[in-house]
Amino acid sequence: MKNETNRSEDLVRTLTRTEYFTFGFGAMVGVGWVVLMDDWLSRGGPGGAALGFLIGGLLLLPVAATYGRMVREVPDAGGEIAYTEGVFPPAAGFASAWTMVLAYAIVCPWEAVAVGNLLSRVFPVFQAMPLYTVAGRAMTLPRLAVGLALTGAVAAINLRGIRPSAAFQKLLTFALLAIFAVFAALGFARGRAANLEPLFARPGAGGAALSILLVMQIVPYFMTGFESVGKGSEEARRGFDPRDFGRAILAAAVIGCAFYVTIVLAVSFVFPWRTLVAEKLGTEAAFARAFGSQAAADGILFAALLSLVKIFNGNFVAATRMLFGIGRRSLVHPALARVHPARGTPRNAIALMAALTAAASFLGDAILVPVSEVGSLAVGVGWFSTCLADRLRARRTGRTGGREALLAWTGAAVSAAVIGMKVTPWVAGSFSRAEWIAFLAWSALGAAFWAMRPRTRP
Questions:
Q1: Do residues 169 and 314 make contact, with C-beta atoms less than 8 angstroms apart?
Q2: Is 132 exposed, middle or buried, given 0-12, 13-18 or 19+ CB atoms closer than 10 A?
Q3: CATH number of the domain that 302 lies in?
Q4: Residue 8 within any structural domain of the chain
Q5: Cβ proximity of 31 and 118 under 8 Å
Q6: pLDDT tens-digit readout, 406-428
Q7: Could you tell me if 172 and 309 are in contact, meaning their C-beta atoms sit under 8 angstroms apart?
Q8: Domain range holding 165?
Q9: Could you tell me which residues come within 8 angstroms of residue 29 by beta carbon, excluding any fewer than 6 positions away?
Q10: What total of structural domains would you count in the chain?
Q11: Span 337-363, pLDDT tens digits
Q12: In a 3-state reduction of DSSP, which class is residue 378?
């Protein structure tokens, strides 16, 4: 089905397949592998964490394949709102798309907070001048200031145009991969297999399965990003092969999964993981102690800083393009669809995203783990709606069987399981009160935007 949306205000067309890969991978891998390694290992241990990311990543490949096909057929910045258009009722399509915006939008304040967490590991001044506490965690003036400054910088880069944003993303992505390859090789060369014991965090019968499950629950959040390729699909350069959307999506998903599995094993191999968890150490501290060198920690923190800025930029681009696509359909106030006449950027969507990120940044470290949980539910909703929309569209053309149908239905089942794990109270790791409050607050904001939409479509 060809999308009939009015595109009088076009985005600039300049992106290549390599840049789509860097946006997909770049929107996926941030600094969780540094600042939350103790949480991952406490959930699963080395075996549980590695298998949780591996199994979770493999289960998401049908979702990635379905997205690749949908983006090829419906290249639209609105993503899920475009895929569900005409096959879902408008309110249902908006709800799924607005929830998917959350999956990207929630990453931005996470990174704005994490940059202060990261820098405080090197510069003690970032722990000085406390302003207030949230959930028992202090927010200091330097950490708040650097988070707000980073938010402003990312917004400014994006206001200048997709070309500088894409060049920035490509540089950071390949620099991270090069540094990561060096440290992973050093970790495996220097480490000991004895450091991996015990393989699973949960003892006794069923402990291995529970360890894997607790990690798999957060995999959707940390793997969110491969599908963000579609949000930039209107910005492909002239002559772009539409099949390259799918190739970029699958490459981002596979390499992202391999990244997480490798770093979990490298850290656990180089340093006893139970000590890391007990002392709440990060990846950089494990390498510093194993190598007896602060330079090792500084190298990892530099890689993490590159990764942090990269994922911030990637998710910022995806969120603003979705807001633009939703606004263009007048499902919220159409001001969100306004494009800068000279730079071809969705200026109002960028301003809104910057404001939301800055506001959420004031919550500090208290949001880091809950955000991971909320993001897992949000992306599950978006993935499920896309896989279901794919099958509803296929029914109209008679393509109801074969490999495409198997992949889409498998993707829908996996996505439904992701949602179920977070909303079912008796499942370990399901939503807590704080996470429900965060999710419902975003839903209320969406309802307010929906209420402000024009009653007559232009």
A1: yes
A2: exposed
A3: 1.20.1740.10
A4: no
A5: yes
A6: 999 999 999 999 888 888 887 76
A7: yes
A8: 17-451
A9: 176, 222, 225, 256, 259, 260, 307, 310, 311
A10: 1
A11: 888 887 788 889 999 999 989 988 887
A12: helix
